[in-house]
Amino acid sequence: MELRTQIAEAVAFLNAKNITEAHVGIVLGTGLGRLADEIENQTVIDYADIPHFPLSTVESHKGKLIFGEIGGKKVLAMQGRFHYYEGYSMKQVTFPIRVMRALGVDTLLLSGAAGGMNLSFKKGDLMMITDHINLLPDNPLIGPNDNELGPRFPDMSETYAKSIQSKIETIAAEKSIPMQKGVYVSVIGPMLESPAEYRFLHRIGADAVGMSTVPEVIVAKHGGMQCAAVIVITDECDPDNLQPLNIAEIMEMAGKAEIKLIELYKTLIAQL
Q1: Pick from 203, 213, 197, 192: which is nearest to 130 by CA?
Q2: What is the pLDDT of residues 25-42, one digit of tens each?
Q3: Angle at Cα 102 formed by Cα 43 and Cα 263, nearest 5°?
Q4: How many helices (H) and strands (E) are present in the chain, helices listed first?
Q5: Reduced to 3 states, what is the DSSP secondary structure of residue 110?
Q6: Domain residue ranges in the chain
Q7: Which CATH code fits 3-271?
């Protein structure tokens, strides 16, 4: 079925649930789902009920689409995202972003957990993504281009909106929230990286590594949206002093940092 037809069917379903135009889209990643609790006048839909939506197979991702308001702005939040390593195509991974755009979202805010390869970063730090490196083996824009959805060759010269980055820095300073800045690299996963891989990724210019975010941003930019992303550094990836890590520890660290991210994004959304 044509992608545009799938988008239209998902939008029609959501419209019937009184989910209409939204201004801000939010993607809540690993361990960061509680921002959804701050959304007022909520309408909550399970991904399983939305036509053509994939199902999240990662335990920490709840799999719900939440429509409501934050700071007087209509928002549409994904409580849980999809990853290429789950076995989905890139078009499936990014399908919710297409639906958001069709519902009027023009600004996409993303979050997630990542390993910090910049040795000045510490566990629990927030890092604003200033740019990214895409090392995933596929791209959601591969194949015939639908000009109704976006241009064949979307410009990525300002992948993350500088105007929003400036607001994030100002809010962080006003609220005494420490904020790192850096380049994020997306890899396929699902295993964590080896010491040699951490050395390689840092040498090519990345400060933090994760398994998501970049495909969503590519599709958002293709559709004409502006993007910003703040991630939690959940582990310190020093290849010379690497310690075994498990997902429970990553979740715990993300949860501890979440209160800072909630405060930051609530204030930011009110200013958009």
Answers
A1: 213
A2: 999 986 667 888 899 999
A3: 50
A4: 7, 9
A5: strand
A6: 3-271
A7: 3.40.50.1580
